[in-house]
Every structure is written in structure tokens, then in C-alpha cells.
Design a protein that fits this description.
- It is a single chain.
- By secondary structure, the protein is an alpha/beta fold.
- The protein has 2 domains: about 5-90, 2-Layer Sandwich (Alpha-Beta Plaits), CATH 3.30.70; about 95-285, 3-Layer(aba) Sandwich (Rossmann fold).
- Helices cover about 30% and strands about 30% of the residues.
- The protein has 8 helices and 14 strands.
- The protein has a 7-stranded mixed beta sheet, with helices on both faces. Strands 2-3-1-4 form a 4-stranded antiparallel beta sheet, with helices on one face.
- β8, α5 and β9 form a beta-alpha-beta unit.
- It is globular, with a radius of gyration of 19 Å.
Amino acid sequence: MTESWLKLSVQAKASQLDAIANFLIERGSPGVVMKQRGVEASFIRLCSDDVLRRDVEEFLADISKLSTNGARPIARWSVIGATNWQNSWKRFIKPRRIGKRFWVTPPWLKPPNFRRREVITIEPGMAFGTGTHATTRSCLEYLERVAEIFGTRRFTALDVGTGAGILAIALVKLGARQVWAIDNDPIALEVARQNIAANDALKRVRLSGKGLNELRGRFPLVVANLTAETLLGLAPVLERRVSARGFLILSGILHTQSSAIVQRFADRFNVASRRRRQEWITLLLQRK
């Protein structure tokens, strides 16, 4: 079947381009082309194109708030036919070394031989969380840190908004005996299932489309890489899902929004660590 593609061209300030490019890759573009004053990306056309367009517009609106003059990036969409783009973009995807424990690689490449590192194989495209975005990298590093605190203790964990499943896979490789991975996007769940299976982790990951309110029990480790607005909306139930002295990793937060997040969780959590990459903040909180 011949596929058609959506082409997105974003005109933006130079200081905004890297964050935009990372977001578009995480949101499903197999690769992006950086230009002097813009970014170009392509997406396979799907029935959920309206969701993609909405997510891009919301992200561009958020990032414009960081600009001193409030300048908002300009997005232009067009439809293009099948080209050799389907294969040529692969040359832009390389294995990435993340933290002290992981290589993240696409399935058609093998990572360099490096001792004491776990390999996470992720198919780029169609779901958030392929390891390239600053928020995903910071989450992976904090997962490593918490696993070191747990030591040899076998633990359970909850991954809220699992996307491509990379954080759930990492949790298994870090020693979790059971991971709940939830997402309200059926496409993301299917992509996550494929990635988790490719990493031999299905036996220890429970994928679910349930909402956070529908889950029961508490977890010593909860991670949620979403948006600041979503985190604030989910705050009451997120708090209930973390066990006493447990850890909560929050990401997807623009640095201008981090104070509001910290304040919202301050009654029940201490800030164990805060990490900034570009304009993104990731928080490691511990329940009091």
C-alpha cells in the first residue's frame, strides 16, 4: 500500500529550534531537517492526525511563552506522496548512550559493544518516548538513581502515559518485578506492546488503557512524563499512587512552570532533585 505523509514546516526563533525538533521526533516523526530559521518534519498519515495537529499547536503555544516578546512559532501543514523518505530518514537515527546504564537503539542498528550497559531497542515513530527528548533522558537517569537507592530490593512501579514504552522497559531492566504501564492512546499502547516484546519484557509489564483513577494500590516508584497542565490535573490521584517514602518522577515541565508543580506537591513530597535540560525540568520527589 502506498502511504502518504503529512509534512510540517515550523518557522521559529533559533533558540526554539532544538526543543521543537526533539518534540517532533518524540511525537512520531522518523526524522527532522533543521534549517536556519525553521524545522521540517514528516509524519505518516493516520486517522489520528487531528490529535497530532492539536498536540503540536499546544506545544508551540507553550514554547512561545518562553520568548521575551511572546513570539509564537508558525506551523504550516501539507500532504505529500510516498517518497524514498521512508528509508532515507533512518540514517539520522543513531544509538544513544543514556545515563550510566543504557544504550537506546533502533532495531536495525546494534549499539557499540560497551560493558555494563543494558540495551533498549525502540522503533522510532508514532508514539512519544524514544529516548531522544530531554524529558525522556532525564527520566531514565532518575530511574537509574532510584534503582540504586533500592539496591537489590525487588520493587513495583507505575509508568503513567507510557508512550513508546521506553520507561517501562528501563524499569524492568533496572530490576522491577512488575510495572504497570498505562496510556489513554490505543496507538501508543500498541507501539509500546511491540517495543516491550522486542525487549523481552512483556512478562513483567502490565499494559493498560485504564485511567489513573481506575488503578488500585500504591507503588514505591511512579513516573509521569506528561505536560505541566496534565500533571496538575492528575496531582491528587498521583499522590495517592505513591507509597510512603516512595518516589515520584515528574517531567514534561517547561522551566517557567516548575514552581507551580513544586508548590502543588509540596505538602506531601520533598524535592530530592531537580534537573534542567534546555527549557525542560524533570523533578525527583520523595513522599514525606
